[in-house]
Amino acid sequence: MAPPHLPNEIILMIAQYLTPRGVANLMLGNWELYHLLRGGVIFDRTLGSSRNGAILWACQHDRKDVVLAMLHRQGEFGYRDWQGFDIVSETPSSELHLPLRFAAFYGHVEIIKILLDWNINTIREDLRALPAAVSGQHLDAVKVLLEYSAKVPGDSPETSPFEDDYILEESPPVSEASFTPAHRHRRFLNQAFVDAIRHGHDEIVEVLVADGRAQISLTEAARLGNERMSPLGVAAEAGHEGALQILFEAGWDVNLRDGNGRTPLFIAAASGQEAIARMLLGRKDINADLANNQGHTPLLEASRKGHVAIIEQLLAAENVNVNPSTSSGQSALSFVASQGIENAVRLFLSAGAHPDTRDHIGRSPLSLAAGAGFPAIVELLLAVDGVDPDSKCKQSQTPLAYSVLSGRFPGRVNGEKTNTTADRDEQQMLDILRGSIEERMACLGVEEEALGNGVALSIMNLLLEDNRVDPNSRDAKGRSVLCLAILRGELAAVRLLVSSKKIDLKSKIYRNLTPVDLVKEKYRRKRFSESRFTSDKST
């Protein structure tokens, strides 16, 4: 703001009629106006809330002279109405908490010293400036605040209310020279400690660890917003190797479990932190198979998230169960198979994982891969000893049935058919299903292009070529695979099933209906439903 071209007397006269907020804003306009308005009755009649704005500005911009001037005038620095500049109390206050936080966040060490030398009791119960200094990444400011906070007078050491809840088995010793009442300062020390770890400020972490007063409890970790995560877990999730190494050297346990039972390795596996996982697995004291409170191991979590590199590292570790499963019975192999992660499936099979584990509804990895539309996984599993290609879930549906139900056929977009004509589909299905063998075979050709466009057809083809697969098996409702294909209107699936010459076309496949009768009934119901819809719409 350029200085106004007015005599100082006129500016002072105008200032006499301004509100306190107006005076403060005018003072901050430029340095000349500040010097002009800072003294005499103009400054003295400025309310504390406006003065607070001036000292905050000074703490932000490292203006030691302004801070000292404000302090010597005994400004009401803690006197602030956050909704405006009206008086909220008649009792003046000279608290310096907010100016101190500003100076700490911007790293102005000399101003921090000025404020605390003026009144060290500013940090007697409130050490919010320490997390502010960590957020600003100012190591020197952190050191100064720790030094002053250790000198707060007038109290004696107390036991933390969270003593029984410490993550550390033994709390670091607190010397008489560096005590601070636990229930006052510890929350801010812990906040600063976790923030430093999360942001990877290794030098600040070292200083806080050496200070020894930050003792994170599970309760406090939850309050700090880390989902009851330990400091080790915070470092693992953020991928900060340096912070982890500092904590290990300070005696923290590599297998430390947080409030949810997660070890640092578990969190690294869940977050995809390959370097952290490699570092942790390289330690001799690591237990790579510790499960969380839900019974999930790091390997299971890495599989669920699809982190192949970490899966490989864990499978190469000692004493790791290669067949972990969730409470619903879904195994690590099932997770990667259902996601189509071929490399991970190969790793599990090479490590000796059971290829035919079942979840709580009886689905095998083969069924899950078939239903998700991954031909490469299906082919890989079919070649493994111990796999049942005709396994049935609790609904008695086989992998072949899952491939038909997947809906991954040509002519579908997001599972919905495009450009369909019921009359044409019905006639084509009838042509395929009825008549002599010669007549049926004449219209069966399954084009290679169709096989390429519909992954379900490729999977069905792989399963039908396996002599162990029974394409005429029925599910719990008595429906065969052909019946499912007809009911879903999958013309390509019907064509492929009939062309395999393994389907019994004469038997009744559903509710005493033959395949031909089922086609007629399906499309009769479809036309009836469409006519009712049209009629209702017209009325």
TrEMBL record:
It holds the Pfam family Ank_2. The keyword Cell division does not apply. InterPro entries: Ankyrin_rpt, Ankyrin_rpt-contain_sf. Keywords: ANK repeat. Transmembrane segments: none annotated. ANK repeats lie at residues 227-259, 260-281, 294-327, 328-360. The keyword Transferase does not apply. It comes from the Eukaryota. This is F-box domain-containing protein. It comes from Penicillium cosmopolitanum.
